[in-house]
Amino acid sequence: MDEQGEVTRREFLKTATTATAVLVLPRLSEGASQPGVASSNSTVNYGIIGTGTEGCSLLRALTRISGAQCVATCDIYPPNQKKGIETAGSNPQLYEDYRRLLDRKDIDAVLIATPLHLHASMLLDTLSAGKHVFVEKSMFFKEEEEIPIRKAAAAHPKQVVQIGLQRRSDALYQCAIDMIRAGAVGKVMFVRAQWHRNSDWRRPVHDPKYERLINWRMYREYSGGLMAELASHQIDVANWAIGAEPLSVVGTGGIDYWKDGRETCDNAQTIFEYPGGQKLVWSSILCNAHYDFNEQIMGDRGTIEITLGKGLFYTEHVAKVSQGATKESWWAGATVTELAKQQGLPIFPETVPPNEGFFGREHRYARAWLMRHGYKTIPENDAWYEELTNFIASVQDSKPVACGLDQGIADARAVIYGNRAIDTGRKVFWPKTIG
Amino acid sequence: MRGWLQKGTASFWPGLLVGLFILAAPRGLQPAGRVGRDVLVPCARNVSSELKRYEASHTSMGTEFTVVAYGQDVRLLAETVEEVFQEIDRIDKQMSNYKPESELSLINREAASRVVRVEPSLYALIQKSLQYSEDTGGAFDITVGPLMKAWGFFRGEGRVPSPGELHGVLAHVGYQHVKLDPANRTIHFDVPGIELDLGGIAKGYAVDRAVSILRENGVTAALVSSGMSSIYALGAPPDEEGWKIILRDPFDSTVPANVVYLRNFSMSTSGNYNKFFRLGGKTYSHIMDPHTGMPVENMLSTTVFVANATDSDALSKLYVLGAEGSRRYLATHPSIQALFYLPAGSEKQFKRVLLQSDSYNLPPDTLVKILR
Asked: Where is average pLDDT lowest: A129-138, B20-29, B217-226, B239-248?
């Protein structure tokens, strides 16, 4: 650090690991032994409630984890029941009533991938049944569900609670956050995120009586709309990057393009304000997919553009002014290839040698970019696989979850308040104290 | 404001002192915020007599230029550095062969079919380049553009040209095809397909122009670099004898190989470890031998120390001649040092060879100190 406390470019990554330890790790699950699991070598038997699209994504990833065994699936829609059993491939028991699944003594852990309005009740019941739980985002649907969830989690401290915000388990995102904590982008003041699609966001429904079941996302009785389904991930990234929860939100939205009888907006825009004046500007539309989905994290010294599978880092050219003399020391060398920097340095979550300075790392990234003909995707680093590996390890071994109760609650609140801002047309403020 | 600052004469120092005194006078309260180009000046109030350090970078000419300057008046430093970056952009716009609208690209398109009039500073640089070609027996050659393209280094990622292709390309390479007419300040190519590429000298030239602007504005301690491969050390940092520059190990960018202290001198490095590609287990560097059309082998890096950056940039191409091959040049050109890193047989080992001109006399107030 120089005299004015500015982190010079050479020192960015030196303290990355220590910096992230405090901020990334959530509260640790307490207690050495977990209900129903004797040791880290024993298999985790799990059941899954909800085997639609997301549930089957979870199952596909879980089938790759050798410590996990699916012994039960639960769904009320026959085609999804079939999909779930086939995807699990382990001949699980099928249930239609999730409470019967929870009654099973041999199940250690439960995953919940049902429509949003069911998350809270299923989560509470699962905790009461003594099981570890993984619940899809967003964590709960209505504001009044928060307190019972907090109480239940506090009453069952030995049970793992993980929320399906998979970017928290993604190595690329973790690397980006390390860089932010180490000062690579300077002071984060602005995050822009969007999730743009060009489709009606509907699933095919052969029998009209299943419309509200299959297309639950279109109906306010079950769904938080684009905010809950899409913004949720990105608000969490902003919370993570900024290191705080928002204070307020304004928003608009409407049904302006897909006027097909849906109740939830087909476009939404929200602006969140954070305690240090930072802003998150978020939009989702369903009539243009050009800008796809990513987050752009902007600090006064640099920018990170990131999505699953791709992250780019750009520096800002800002002059640094300081008092008096510095011990000047400059590294010379042949030309650093600037093309890579102008197009952004790709972020690779490779292991970094402990004493590697910033220039060394930049050189390495530029070379890797040149030699691999473009952006590197990391096929083995599937975010669903990562988060579920984390979950199973947490159940077996009390490893900390990458996304736990506090992150899940913060995220769910932001979704609820964002939707309220859109519905009322008024700025919504977070309560001063947590209830 | 600049009238008081006279360069290069005996009146320089008193003029400078007067200038600094006037510049250092308080300007009243200045609000915190932005000064000139994105300078974050936290709560700057009146300009004190304390020395400030100003550092800024700018992307241009395919690399990142950095200026570090010391001075009393941050606002003046910011404005001066802004002017430096604008000049570098002007040079890029004029001399870039990546820009089809540049003067250089126009020359490349037209000089084979007609005589083209050239702007004076560009003409002078081309003239100097041709002189370097003569003096180095063609090791330095600004006509290697087609060769760079054949090897895929122009906007590309590297490819190996066939011998036939190479032979065809070499017909369009060679500084002797460039004809200058000083009386009319014109240029002409005597065969088609000639392409000038000033990549081996323009960045050093830009560094020299930057230093001129800094000197004109009364800066006496600054470091200017283009991508840290061409550097000029103006004066020295406060309480130091020179600017400290570390030459990296060619195999590991975090390990120092030599430490250099420079004052009012320049150094440039050519190396094979940043812009290269691998194909079939072999590493191909981007530094071409214009005679053979092949990338130079058996050389890791060459750092040349000369009084100005245009010359140090051009002469870093002594890389092509190698250590022994450079002796003749050094015998006939004064006050140059050249430090070569050569492969030393086994994996990741290198050896150093430091050569010096037969005639070596540094001007006053300069320093070139090379340490292990």
From this structure: B20-29
Task: State the pLDDT at residue A2.
Answer: 36
What distance in Å separates the CA atoms of residue B134 and residue B140, rounded to the nearest whole number? 8
What is the spatial distance between Cα B224 and Cα B203, in angstroms, rounded to a whole number? 11
Which pLDDT belongs to residue A349?
Answer: 56
- Select from A325, A85, A119 the least CA-distant residue to A229: A119
Do both A354 and A248 map to the same domain?
Answer: yes
pLDDT at site A381: 61
Q: A133 in a domain, yes or no?
A: yes
In a domain, A393, yes or no: no
**Does one domain contain both A249 and A321?**
yes
Is A289 part of the contact surface with chain B (CB cutoff 8 Å)?
A: no
Nearest to B136 by CA among B183, B200, B85, B81: B200
Both B158 and B65 in a single domain?
A: no
Residue A140: which region, alpha, beta or left (left: phi > 0; alpha: psi -120 to 50)? beta
The total domain count for chain B is: 3
Helix (H) or strand (E) segment spanning residue B165: helix B163-170
- Which range among A13-17, A88-92, B8-12 shows the weakest confidence by mean pLDDT? A13-17
Q: Does a structural domain hold residue A340? A: yes
The string of pLDDT tens digits covering residues A334-363 is 544 444 345 566 676 554 444 455 555 555
Minimum-distance CB partner of B269 among A322, A330, A334: A334
- Cβ count near B348 (within 10 Å): 10
Across the interface, whether the CB atoms of B270 and A332 are under 8 A apart is answered: no
Contact B229 A332 (CB under 8 A): yes
Dihedral of CA atoms A70, A76, A78, A81 in degrees, nearest 10, equals: -10
Q: What's residue A320's pLDDT?
A: 83
Q: Over pLDDT 90: what percentage of chain B?
A: 57
Residues 317-346, chain A, touching B (beta carbon < 8 A): 317-326, 328-339, 341-342
Q: In terms of domains, do B262 and B354 share one?
A: yes
Q: Looking at the predicted structure, is the pLDDT value of residue A70 above 70? A: yes
Question: A159, A182, A206 — which closes off a domain?
Answer: A159
Residue B321 to residue B139: CA distance in whole angstroms: 6
Say yes or no: A189 and A216 in one domain.
yes
Cross-chain CB nearest to B227 (options A4, A335, A373): A335
- Residue range of the domain that includes A144: 31-159
Average pLDDT, chain B: 83
Mutate: best of B252, B253, B302, partner A, most A CBs <10 A? B253
Question: In which band, very low, low, confident or very high, does the pLDDT at B9 lie, cut at 50, 70 and 90?
Answer: very low
Which residues in chain A touch residue B254, judged by CB atoms under 8 angstroms apart? 353, 355-357, 360
At which of B186, B210, B227 does a domain end? B227
Shortest distance, CA A183 to any CA of chain B (angstroms): 16
A363 interfacial to chain B (CB closer than 8 Å): yes
Decide if A369 is inside a domain: yes
- Asked if residue B98 belongs to a domain, the reply is no
The verdict on a CB contact (< 8 Å) between A324 and B54 is no
Percent of chain A with pLDDT over 90: 65
Distance in Å, alpha carbon of A345 to nearest chain B alpha carbon: 14
Chain A contact set for B42 (CB, 8 A): 4
- Which range in A278-282, A322-326, B348-352 is most confidently predicted, on average pLDDT? A278-282
Provide mean pLDDT across the span B224-252: 92
Contact B62 A322 (CB under 8 A): no
Most B CBs within 10 Å, among A322, A335, A373, to test the B interface = A335
Residue A84's CATH number = 3.40.50.720
3-state SS, residue A272: strand
Does residue B167 lie in a domain region?
A: yes
Does the distance separating the beta carbons of B54 and A334 come in below 8 Å?
A: no
For A253-264, b/e burial (b = at least 16 CB within 10 A) is beeeebeeebeb
Range of the domain at B158: 103-196
